[in-house]
Amino acid sequence: MFFKSKNREGKQRQLLIARTVDGIKLAATSRDAETALQEACIAFRHDDEERHDEEVESGAATALYKQLALYLHTNGSDKDIQLITLALSMVYKCSKATRVSSFGDIGSGLLTVLSQVIERTLNGTIDDEFMALTHAARTLLLLSQVNELKTELVKHDGLVKGLVNIMGNRDIEDARVDAMHSIIFLMFEDDNVVTMARVPGLIEMLTEVAIHREEEDQIRRWSGAAMWNLACCPANKVMMASRPTCLRAILFLMKSTCLVTVGYAVSTVRQLATEEDNKSSMVNYNNGSLLRAIVYIATRDDIHMEITRKSVHSLHYLVSHITAVDACKHSPLSEKNTGLLVTLTSLVIDSPDEEIREAALSGLTTIAIALCDGMCQFETLLQCLVNLLKSGRIEPTTMSLAALRKISVKAENHFSMVNCLGLLETLGEFIVHNIEIGHPERIENAMALDVLLSLTTDDVCCVVVADSDAVLGALEQVLIIRADLKIQECAFKIIGNFANSPDSRVKTSKHKGLMYATLHKSKEDPTLRESFKLLAADM
Known about the structure:
Blueprint: H1 2-26, H2 30-43, H3 49-57, H4 60-73, H5 78-91, H6 96-122, H7 131-144, H8 150-155, H9 159-167, H10 173-187, H11 193-197, H12 202-211, H13 217-231, H14 234-241, H15 244-254, H16 259-273, H17 279-283, H18 289-299, H19 305-318, H20 324-330, H21 339-350, H22 354-370, H23 378-390, H24 394-408, H25 414-418, H26 423-436, H27 443-455, H28 459-466, H29 469-479, H30 486-499, H31 502-509, H32 512-522, H33 526-536
Helix pairs in contact: 1-2, 1-4, 2-5, 4-5, 4-6, 5-7, 6-7, 6-9, 7-10, 9-10, 10-13, 12-13, 12-15, 13-16, 15-16, 15-18, 16-19, 18-19, 18-21, 19-22, 21-22, 21-23, 22-24, 23-24, 23-26, 24-27, 26-27, 26-29, 27-30, 28-31, 29-32, 30-31, 30-33, 32-33
């Protein structure tokens, strides 16, 4: 009995669908057509996907398309056009497989008439308070959700442009949401990214949506997602970064209160920054405001780790040997902001995420290679290198010493180095620590001594180094190591420089521990013996 009832209901439903479709097809007068369309809208107003499948398979979509084409060709009534587009937006809530099948029959023609509805409504030819346009936008959204159709939709002449035009009218909220949603669905098809980026007005629309202060939050989020997806395509990177309006929109999105939107904006910067030709324009955009915004995001503790990771990667890509100086100039340490250098240093030392630490350290390395005395933020760089050396982490300490050794090669850098707060003390303590833990032979010890040797090559700086108890204590510890190590040769040379500088001699000779160690070791080395004689003369 139950199965008979189900079968009877199915047959009745099929008869109703057939009668509804026939009514649309066979309407002889405009009155008959309007009545048939009203009945269709009533019959199709439900959310049963299987029933919509039956409606489309029975020819409902095809009949509605043909009627719409006829009405547009003959300038039929706006009311009937509105009913037809409404009915289409209902029946295409069928399954995606059925949408594909129907599109195969009428797809190209359907897209043409829907585009015409949009165009005529926007230019005022169809005057129905944007209802037909709203229904057309909903139908296009349903079609754009189907992966198999996305490429065909974008290929259709004028369709994406029509969606862009809808976004330009703020009086049609529902249609704008559906149009933007359709653009997102279509854009996230790999084959469409380049084509859509070249659609006239699309990028301009995305940037306008991003910066308009009264825009809906959801639409603004979608604009961020769209720009990120466009930026992922190599063919779009230079084109986007060369447009100040794009960079302005990205900057605006990064200041959003919505963290999802912020994440899209940072991801966009990260993608654009991978292109070498973009780095300089992005770092210097609006006097560095884009760069400062990324630095600020990297310091925030109220965002997801993934956003922080992307912001640090963005900085890693943006800071190159060409842009490093400008980047430091645009994002200096100040009372209100930590600045680029301090931010990267803090991330290297404190971040629990290894990927963040590595990217930040890479950025610092690039900056350290580019900066020298007299340049903006050079003193800040030295202080950051000292903090890295104090961190105790292997990679940061090695990088710090390598950078300091490279910087110390240039004599013009020496004065700033010996006057950097804590630099000499930290170098001395680092050497002593390695000796105390049984690793005097570490390559980092040799690097630290190389730095000290460079700093003692001129009299003025040599005096400052000789005045550091930490340095003199470290040299003492190096000399009293029983084994003969190569680092002792470097220590001999540093002591020799002290001995050859009158003011340094006075200070060095007062350190009893170092003098005793020098005396003991001088028995094995004639050069050190001569140095000791000079030092002893001032005792």
